[in-house]
Amino acid sequence: MVSVSLMCLVLLSLWGVRGEVAPNFDNCKMFFFREKPVSGLNIALSTPDETNTQKLVNPEKCLSAYKAASPAYICQTYNNQYYFATLYDRARRIPLYSAYKMDMKAKPERKGSIVNYEPQLVHPELAQNMMNKSRCLREIQNYNKNDCTETEKKYKPNYKLNWSQAVDEDYSSSKGNYTRGHLNPAGHHQQDASQATMTFTNVAPQNPNINNDQWNKYEKNLKNNLTQGCREMYVVTGVVPNKDIVPSKEWLNNRVNVPSHYWNAFCCTDNKNKPLRSGGALCPNTADGQVTEYNTVAELQNVLINEMNFGNNFNIFFNRCQIRPTARAGDWQDS
């Protein structure tokens, strides 16, 4: 007879391999300042229902992700290690934000291209690691072997993967009008941490002009200049979805929402995790978009709430990193 304690250990081990797509960020809250995730960003669209499932065998199991909650909380996992956190809008097929701690000593590097997908957006029982398309399709195929006959179109691996998240073909269809815009940029990390950013759940359509010019310059300034004197740099980068809530010309391939703006907030702390400075930026996602920088996160939040309809309870750092300049240039203090 199996002892109760042994049964508990088995259950705990099973729970431990469950999704890194979860109901919250408890497993990766270390990427947020003082482990407090962003609050009040209630702008995700509901996951669209998959229709005409009456004749399918076991649709509840075989289409398990098709009615999953939106947004999805992703602890981005690469080679069995957490590297950052992403709030993912399943319906728009874009991340709403990615939160991370910058590697301030990282040398600029970017090996390869964006190739990885999140298997747990397809089925929560699949592997926790992000993986390339061929591996992801094999994962789905293995899952399908029990009850999910692939003679049904909606059970086919490609169909499931394409339904669950943006894919390479979505961006290719834009014919260069939009690029794959990182929220958590590869250049703010190195080695495996840099590679971990190469996932479609960390990119959104971005105008190539700002991706290569204005926003790129801001990202470099954030790392090279705004980190001076910091022990840690907590960063949250997000997007403002465009207002069309149904696929239209403002969506890539009628599947992926094209954001109207990109935004960024940062909190620089000292050796005792006390804030030294904070700030943010906002940039229209257009060919002539210009970056507007803010001296405090509060200023950025006010714009996102009052002009971008983020809701009054939206809070990035819970007012714990509101730093303003004093009368003496270069001196900073808590507000």
Shape verdict: globular
* Secondary structural class: alpha+beta
Provide mean pLDDT, rounded.
Answer: 88
| Largest sheet features | 8 strands, antiparallel
- Read across the widest sheet, the strand sequence of neighbours is 1-2-3-4-9-12-13-14
Terminal CA distance reads 62 Å
Question: How many runs of DSSP E, i.e. beta strands?
Answer: 16
Q: Helix segment count?
A: 9
User: H/E order of the elements?
Assistant: HEHEEEEEHHHEHEHHEEEEEEHEE
Low-confidence stretches: 1-19, 325-335
- Strand composition percent: 15-25%
Radius of gyration computed on alpha carbons: 21 Å
Helical percent range? 10-25%
Structural write-up:
By secondary structure, the chain is of the alpha+beta class. Helix content is 22%, strand content 24%. It has helices at 4-16, 59-62, 133-144, 157-164, 168-172, 191-195, 208-212, 214-224, 297-306, and strands at residues 21-22, 72-78, 81-89, 94-101, 116-117, 131-132, 179-182, 203-206, 232-240, 251-252, 256-257, 261-269, 275-284, 292-294, 323-325, 332-334. The strands form five sheets. It has an eight-stranded antiparallel sheet, sandwiched between helices. A two-stranded antiparallel ribbon has the order 5-6. Helix 3 (133-144) packs across helix 4. The model is unreliable at 1-19 and 325-335 (pLDDT under 50).
